[in-house]
Amino acid sequence: MTEPQFFATPGYGPWMLENRHYHQAVRIGDRVDISGQGGWDDQLTFPESIEEEIVRAFDNVERTLATAGATWRDVVSVDSFHVSDSPDVLGEVHGEVMIEQFRKRMGDRSPIWTMIGVAMLAAPNMRVEIRVTAVVGRT
User: Fold this and answer.
1) Whether the Cβ atoms of residue 65 and residue 132 lie closer than 8 Å to each other
2) What is the pLDDT tens value at each position of the chain, 139 positions in all?
3) At what angle do helices 92-106 and 50-67 cross, to 10 degrees?
4) CA-CA distance, 50 to 28, in Å (whole number)?
5) Among 132, 133, 125, which Cα is nearest to 52's?
6) Cα(26)–Cα(75) distance, rounded to whole angstroms?
7) pTM of the predicted model over 0.90
8) First and final CA of the chain: distance in angstroms?
9) 3-state secondary structure at position 111
10) In 10 A of CB 37, how many CB atoms?
């Protein structure tokens, strides 16, 4: 079995490791798993619009994957967690922006995806978190 390699995303990753005691990604052989990435910037602040927050979360997933030697095109599985502004359903914007970003970043490849509504996430004002699994070099 290949030894696990752990990674901290440049920018916010070292702070998370020091203050929260976790890495952003682990690679074992060709498989990369990442911890949930939010739509924060390097100062851990969030944008006002949900659309921008989702796009920024995708950017952070991309940065984290790159740190471990992977890309969005290597992603095979996505779990996304969403805080809705409605008690009955996730807003259409969440799904629309997610799908738009999948198409933009993955081209003709489609992952498996589970979209999960939650009451809250780890940080105040956080409305989306995305975690993925990638297999590097898949064809």
Assistant:
1) yes
2) 689 999 999 999 999 999 999 999 999 999 999 999 999 999 999 999 999 999 999 999 999 999 999 999 999 999 999 998 777 777 788 999 999 999 999 999 999 999 999 999 999 999 999 999 999 986 5
3) 40
4) 33
5) 125
6) 14
7) yes
8) 23
9) coil
10) 25
118: its two tokens: 């939650």
97 token code pair: 């922006």
- CB 38, CB 120: distance < 8 Å: no
Q: 10 Å Cβ neighbour count for 68?
A: 22
pLDDT of residue 31: 97
Provide the 3-class DSSP secondary structure of residue 25. strand
Give the pair of three-digit tokens for residue 85. Answer: 């502004």
* 46 phi/psi in degrees, rounded to 5: -115, 145
Provide the token pair at 6.
């752990």
State both tokens at 137.
């070099």
Number of H helices, E strands in the chain: 3, 7
**How long is the chain?**
139
The SS3 assignment for 98 reads helix
